[in-house]
């Protein structure tokens, strides 16, 4: 009898200590794709020692805990993957005693060269904070930091390339501006051989990992060179790189958010040009005109996509994974400048007919962009990495989930 009483009283404090933080509902549209959702948590101090946040989905059968991850900052809240099934779902967020839940499939590793996001212990992407020099015999002006390479498909296929002999200034996933004007002087941050400017890693700001996402924020500096190669700051840029623990294991999803700010009293003019800024991608050397393809949201292909606008673009090609093909679905957020966003796509006869693949969302393709001093300008992109094939219908679902997530309706009780 004493043993039974001890068990009963041991459970009671747990129940009494549980604090309900929030109740809300979501209306999910039909035929959606899973996408991470942020819900603000109005109560202050939701991160407490010895306690954890627990999110439950409510059904007639009871409550079931699902993974969530807290994020602080100016507007604290939680991230989670809501159900992609059509209909209304009820959720309740509670503060419970005890340690946090497992960290999930994603982790971070940092060394002298790069910060790597791993998925199930295998590299997904590497952000290079250290300079990478070009091959021996090539001008050192082509050295650079502040880029993503390598980037892998879910099956481990490398998708990016850096320093190809045809364009030594190409660096995997990167985004320097090409034709800019600073105080009446033209500055090129893209074509490094000119020696006019470059983009440099300037420091990490934060990092996080948990059951829903892993990622980090960092500062990049767009600098131009004055007399005696003295560096001058033209643009401060914050990159937020975040990989999501996507509930469907055959895909990997990465968000890249760029926030630009210039300290220049007169601002900086990003002149209209066919490439520069946004998000650029130099594809693996395996891909050429015979074994790769491009398809945009407007139905354009490699032969006619260049200079057109799109919400999304599928870039894919032959690979060594069992499915035989791998690729990236690039998504542009509707809040981006010039959305649907202009694109730079190399045609099939690029590089003397070999057809190497380059893609870029390019917000200044058709119209210049003036950055005024001490104002923030943000560009948001999502990359859906896949093996096998990505259909236009699937691509549109992913874009809708990125652009139009469900809205949480708070419940007053």
Notable traits:
413 residues, mainly beta, 8-stranded antiparallel beta sheet, 5-stranded antiparallel beta sheet, 2 helices, 29 strands, 7% helix, 44% strand
Folded structure, characterized:
It is globular and about 65 Å long. The protein has an 8-stranded antiparallel β-sheet with strand order 15-16-17-18-28-24-23-21, covered by helices on one side. The protein has a 5-stranded antiparallel β-sheet with strand order 4-3-7-1-29, with helices on one face. The protein is mainly beta and 413 residues long. The relative contact order is 0.14. It starts with a helix and ends with a strand. It is 7% helix and 44% strand. The longest helix is centred in the first third of the chain and has 16 residues. The protein is built from 2 helices and 29 strands.
Widest sheet: strand order? 15-16-17-18-28-24-23-21
| Percentage of residues assigned to helices | under 10%
Q: What value does the average pLDDT take?
A: 91
Low-confidence regions:
1-16
Task: Enumerate how many helices there are, as a single number.
Answer: 2
Short description:
Strand 17 and strand 18 form a beta hairpin. 7% of the residues lie in helices and 44% in strands. Strands 15-16-17-18-28-24-23-21 form an eight-stranded antiparallel sheet, covered by helices on one side.
Topology record:
Elements: H1 2-17, E1 19-28, E2 37-40, E3 51-59, E4 62-66, E5 69-71, E6 77-80, E7 87-97, E8 106-110, E9 114-119, E10 122-128, E11 147-151, E12 173-174, E13 180-182, E14 185-187, E15 197-209, E16 213-225, E17 231-244, E18 251-261, E19 268-270, E20 279-282, E21 292-296, E22 309-310, E23 312-318, E24 325-332, E25 341-345, E26 358-361, E27 369-371, E28 377-387, H2 392-403, E29 409-410
Antiparallel strand pairs: 1-7, 1-29, 2-6, 3-4, 3-7, 5-6, 8-9, 9-10, 10-11, 12-20, 13-14, 13-19, 15-16, 16-17, 17-18, 18-28, 19-27, 20-26, 21-23, 22-25, 23-24, 24-28, 25-26
């Amino acid at each position: 009898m004493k043993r039974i009483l001890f068990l009963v009283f041991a459970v009671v404090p747990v129940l009494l200590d549980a604090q309900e933080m929030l109740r809300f509902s979501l209306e999910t549209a039909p035929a959606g794709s899973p996408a991470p959702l942020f819900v603000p948590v109005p109560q202050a101090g939701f991160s407490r020692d010895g306690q954890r946040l627990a999110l439950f989905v409510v059904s007639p059968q009871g409550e079931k805990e699902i993974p969530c991850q807290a994020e602080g900052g100016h507007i604290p809240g939680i991230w989670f993957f809501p159900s992609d099934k059509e209909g209304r779902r009820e959720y309740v967020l509670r503060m419970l005693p005890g340690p946090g839940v497992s960290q999930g499939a994603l982790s971070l590793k940092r060394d002298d060269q790069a910060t790597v996001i791993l998925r199930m212990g295998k590299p997904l992407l590497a952000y290079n904070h250290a300079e990478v020099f070009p091959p021996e015999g090539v001008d050192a002006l082509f050295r650079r930091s502040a880029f993503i390479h390598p980037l892998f498909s879910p099956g481990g296929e490398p998708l990016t390339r850096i320093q190809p002999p045809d364009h030594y200034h190409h660096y995997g996933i990167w985004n320097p501006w090409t034709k800019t004007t600073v105080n009446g002087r033209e500055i090129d941050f893209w074509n490094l051989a000119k020696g006019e400017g470059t983009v440099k890693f300037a420091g990490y700001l934060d990092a996080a990992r948990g059951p829903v996402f892993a990622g980090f924020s960092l500062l990049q500096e767009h600098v131009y060179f004055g007399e005696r190669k003295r560096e001058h700051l033209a643009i401060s840029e914050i990159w937020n790189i975040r990989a999501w623990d996507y509930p469907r294991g055959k895909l990997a999803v990465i968000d890249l958010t760029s926030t630009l700010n210039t300290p220049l009293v007169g601002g900086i003019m990003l002149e209209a040009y066919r490439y520069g800024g946004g998000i650029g991608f130099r594809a693996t050397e395996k891909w050429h005109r015979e074994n790769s393809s491009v398809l945009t949201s407007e139905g354009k292909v490699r032969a006619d996509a260049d200079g057109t606008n799109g919400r999304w673009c599928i870039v894919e090609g032959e690979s060594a994974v069992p499915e035989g093909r791998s690729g990236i679905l690039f998504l542009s957020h509707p809040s981006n400048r010039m959305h649907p966003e202009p694109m730079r796509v190399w045609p099939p006869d690029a590089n003397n007919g070999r057809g190497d693949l380059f893609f870029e969302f390019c917000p200044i393709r058709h119209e210049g962009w003036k950055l005024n001093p001490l104002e923030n300008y943000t560009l948001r992109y999502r990359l859906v990495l896949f093996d096998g094939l990505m259909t236009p219908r699937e691509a549109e679902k992913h874009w809708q989930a990125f652009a139009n997530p469900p809205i949480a309706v708070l419940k007053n009780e």
